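Field reference: sequence -> structure
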Amino acid sequence: MKIKTMIMLAAICFAIIPMVIYAVYVGNSTSGSSTAELEKQLTDLVNNQIQVLDTYANTVNNQCDILAGSDELKDAANGGDKNAAGSLLVSLTAENASVNAAALVDGSGKLICGTLPAESVMGVNLSSLGSYKDGALYITSTNKLLFTKHKVGKANLVIFYNISIDTFLCNIPSNAPTAYLVMVVDNNKNGIAKESVVTNLAEQFSSEVVARLDTLEEGVSETISYENQLTGVAGLKKKIAVMARAGGDSGLVVIASVADNASSIFGDATSGVIAAVIIIAILAIAGAIVISIIVTKPLNTIEETLVKIRRGDHEARITTVSNNEYGQISRAFNNLVDEIVVSEDRYRTIAEMSDNIIFEWNFKTNEVFFSNNFNKKFSYRAPSDHFADSFLLKAKLHGDDADRYREDLEKLGNGDEFKGNEYRIKNIYGDFIWVIMRTATLRDKEGKPLKIVGVMVDIDRAKKSEQQLTARASFDALTELYNRETVEGQIDNEIALSEARKSEMAVLFIDVDDFKHFNDQYSHATGDQVLKFVARSINSIVSEFGFAGRYGGDEFIAVIRNAEINDPARAAQDIIARLDEGFTCDSGDHLKVSVSIGIALIKDDYNTRVEYLIGKADDAMYSVKKSGKSNYAFI
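Structure field:
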């Protein structure tokens, strides 16, 4: 079967069938008109109560705010005169018929001043007043009294009010159904009905209604249907409740509830619909499970094959190939794996045939892999592929290179790259050999590093040859620079190192303009001083990124490494400027010197012979001579 067909069947099961069920449900809900009328009556009733309660709550809060802010109560709360505060509270009780009692009590519930109702009437544990919210109205558990508390310093102001049931609970409409119930509920879930004080709301309402009380917003009525046996009324289980809050987040809640008699008429039909819905739902779920297994089985096969290949089984392929779209995907997958395996084998073979060591650091798995020829150069055997066990972290570095290497490795871990740095690492024979490391960072489309691919190149022979040349180099006796033979050897060695570094190098051929003038005008001793001044000037400029030598007579050679970074033209300009500043010779004369400089570059033609390279720089120098001297030119 085609995948498209299976998806269509799944859509029928999960979309059309639920719609049909919903249509049946809507058809059987036509009785809702009578229920809606009941809800409207309840909502109107609740809204009437809310308006009355809002007015009363605002009056109470204003009264309490005025009392709590009085100096008499503040003084008494802080241990001062009690008589003035007591007189104020007694006057409040005497002059206000709605106030039953008013008192100021300390944190432990002891009376400071004022009056309190009898314990049997009060029904409030005064020592626990700290758990009551300031400004909220509460219902006593033993009588139909409302009370509130306000914090005054370290004490609590408590006022008990006489409540008129008819004031808060409007008359029930004459056309109201049986078992009509209206109740006012406080934050402790104590309620007042016309008959009595209710301390256990679950007896009158379901747990759903009780739980909803905590989430009510002020002035917004909510309707909820629930099932609960009405006290004293047999056979009425389906009920509707409308509730709303007045007086702020801590205010009282009005609940109006009634039995939904209309819904019982359709009870038998509803139970039949529910049974049908359950059966259809079970069948739909079973069908969905079967279809999902059929649809996803080929995907599971592809996933299992990928896991096998990831674990090193390059022969793993998808063996079950059908004629549908999955079959096309499977064949394309097998072909792709074949090409990847061939490509990896080619890559591995090239890496092993090369003297260079290839490595890869996968940031996602934090694993490091080295090409097999690594074992020919180093003796380290990593216990796992994890970075913490890898040669990158465990390599034994020469003491002079260790800190620099660790800093570069930390940058590499942050997604940067090795900048072609050279290090001495101990090899399989226990000797430190020179290597150069180059890396490339592969990133995702957001620029985050995914992996590092790098190469480790053995440059030990070239570096040691350089060191040997330096050790036995012959210097020009006059200028103390390299002589001609050493310069040519150093250039040859520098070409090899530039090839390993994949960098550019430059040769500057420098000739003193009109040098004969110094010998003829002054003396040969002055001419020697000029040559020494030229040598010092050149060497001071290029020594940080190259070297210099005397090629013969008044001709000098300067070599610049990494010419793509260290600009040869800049170096030539600095040399010309430095010489133009001049020096004071032994005779006391201040002499300025000008030179003509020819520059030859090597970018990727590393097979260039030394003689050819110097010759090209010499040609460039003569072009400067012909065009006016005291300048530089590239070939």
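Note: Residues 404 and 526 are 46 Å apart (CA to CA).
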